[in-house]
Design brief:
The chain is α+β, with helices and mostly antiparallel strands. 36% of the residues lie in helices and 18% in strands. The structure holds flavin-adenine dinucleotide.
Length: 484
């Protein structure tokens, strides 16, 4: 009997990379979904031990037009790592070498290096890798680069993109390339390194990254404050910047979220005060400038009569951060589904955005909480709804669409750090005009002519709400801290 093209491709894959194939039912299943929990089975899972094997797998896939979805640990919340079109999953989590070059203050690492492990190795050598997504204990550098991940410290230190000096990896054809070099500057030709960053595995596969490190900040001080209004809280980042204070973290929880978490924990953050919007602020300046910045911050808090506390120990600081964690966990108790959007707006439009969410809450009769990185204008808007209730789901999707329209109208972006994946494809077209969209598509066409790399992501509309979700946990869910 003649074999079909998939069988031929698979037998060539077995011949060339048999030792890297994971074939148990469990391996296939656990590579079939990510944090969005939409399952599509791949026909093979390849776990390379060496970078060249990535090139070989891609060359075969390209020859036979087999879809390839690259995977770190599947902590994407957007379906970015779901093998939508089946085909092969390229699990690069085993390429996890980390080599700190203290002399050049940089680190070379494989895409599977876990962010917290890399940070620890840098720390042990007196250096600091700042990007810190809340998933850092399990997510990989490759995934961070592919999504241009952010986190709590971006307000002072920037996002993943700001630390990438060079990327090596493979094109869809299986050819090897290096974009950028291990140098602080690079002005030679097109900057395709930055094109790969944030491309969600649709333009190539990263097999080595060279990342910039900086000196470790010496001291830290953590504050928590209850604000009389959302306006005061949301204008704090710019107000403090003007006063010369540069927080390393400035996080916001809206009044609704604070109310929800206080009811859930049965504990008031500031006893007797009720539910007020909350700011969590960390300063990490060196030497005596920490005291100077702290004083300016305390004066600013006093000027607005904000009730506040400063942590006197690491343990107390941890208790403050627990407030942020509980904001998210308490919301999960309200319904069976939490849609966590990661929109970003200009700093001076955050007040309007949060006001708009309040009106959406009223109009849609949905539970919607806002918290997140107000220093970057990157707020997580969380819609709670019961997926089993079709009418409520429709209301949530309608409200979400209105939110996305508003974000674009305010000059913002529908994703600040999680990427488009599948989840945001229904809205991505709002973000771009025809010329921008056409240009993006022609780049995809030029770099992946057969469309084998992560098909279905970014460009094709997919409705995640119409899909049956997987109930099984992913490996990282057992250690989840949930601070996105
Ligand atoms: C609890 C929790 C908290 C989170 N907090 C944050 C947060 O604070 N900030 C934030 O930005 N994100 C956050 N995330 C989202 C997620 O962790 C990030 O998007 C992370 O970058 C994904 O890494 P990963 O290794 O899991 O990648 P995966 O989920 O496996 O893949 C993500 C995308 O990257 C592509 N990809 C992976 N590796 C490569 C590679 N080597 N080459 C090319 N493409 C590749 C995949 O194809 C996919 O499109 C959070 C997620 C969870 C579950």
């Amino acid at each position: 009997m003649p074999k079909n093209v998939n069988d031929v491709a698979l037998s060539e894959l077995r011949r060339d990379l048999g030792a890297c194939l994971l074939s148990s039912e469990e391996d296939i299943f656990s590579s079939s979904f990510d944090g969005l929990k939409i399952e599509r089975r791949p026909s093979a899972v390849i776990k390379p031990e060496r970078a060249e094997q990535v090139g070989r797998a891609l060359a075969l896939a390209n020859e036979h037009s087999v879809p390839v979805t690259t995977r770190g640990v599947g902590s994407s919340l957007t379906g970015g790592a779901t093998p939508l079109a089946g085909g092969w999953v390229l699990d690069v989590s085993g390429l996890d070498a980390i080599d700190v070059d203290a002399g050049n203050t940089l680190v070379r690492c494989g895409p599977g290096a876990v962010v917290a492990d890399l940070q620890k190795k840098a720390f042990d050598m007196g250096l600091f890798y700042p990007p810190d997504p809340s998933s850092k204990k399990f997510c990989t550098i490759g995934g961070n680069i592919a999504c241009n991940a952010g986190g709590l410290r971006c307000v002072k230190y920037g996002v993943t993109r700001d630390y990438v000096l060079a990327l090596s990896g493979y094109l869809a054809t299986g050819e090897f390339v290096t974009w950028g070099r291990a140098t602080r500057k690079f002005a030679t030709g097109y900057n395709l390194r930055d094109l790969w960053i944030g491309s969600e595995g649709t333009l190539g596969v990263v097999t080595e990254a060279v990342l910039r490190l900086i000196p470790q900040p010496s001291n830290r001080r953590t504050f928590i404050a209850a604000c009389p209004s959302e306006e005061i809280a949301l204008t704090a980042p710019v107000a403090l910047m003007k006063l010369g204070v540069r927080p390393s973290i400035i996080e916001f929880l809206d009044q609704w979220t604070v109310d929800c978490l206080q009811k859930y924990t049965g504990k008031e953050i500031f006893p007797g005060l009720g539910a007020n919007p909350v700011l969590l602020i960390e300063l990490d300046s060196p030497g005596t400038s920490l005291d100077t910045e702290s004083k300016i911050l305390e004066d600013w808090l006093a000027e607005f009569s904000l009730q506040s506390s400063v942590a006197k120990s690491e343990e107390e600081a941890e208790e403050f951060w627990e407030v942020r964690r509980q904001g998210s966990s308490s919301m999960k108790k309200l319904a069976d589904t939490k849609l966590n959007e990661d929109i970003v707006v200009p700093l001076d439009r955050q007040v309007e955005l949060v006001g708009f969410v309040s009106s959406l809450r009223e109009k849609s009769k949905l539970k919607i909480g806002v918290f997140g990185h107000c220093g970057d204008g990157n707020l997580h808007v969380n819609f709670m709804y019961n997926e089993s209730d079709a009418e409520e789901t429709n209301r949530a999707v309608g409200a979400l669409r209105e939110l996305m329209q508003k974000v674009v109208e305010l000059g913002g972006a529908i994703s600040g750090e999680h990427g488009v994946g599948l989840a945001k494809t229904p809205f991505v077209r709002m973000q771009f005009n025809d010329a921008e969209w056409r240009t993006m598509k022609s780049i995809k066409q030029a770099m992946d002519p057969k469309g084998i790399l992560n098909p279905g992501k970014i460009f094709d509309v997919f409705n995640p709400w119409e899909q049956k979700k997987v109930s099984a946990p992913l490996s990282w869910e057992r250690t989840e801290e949930d601070l996105p």
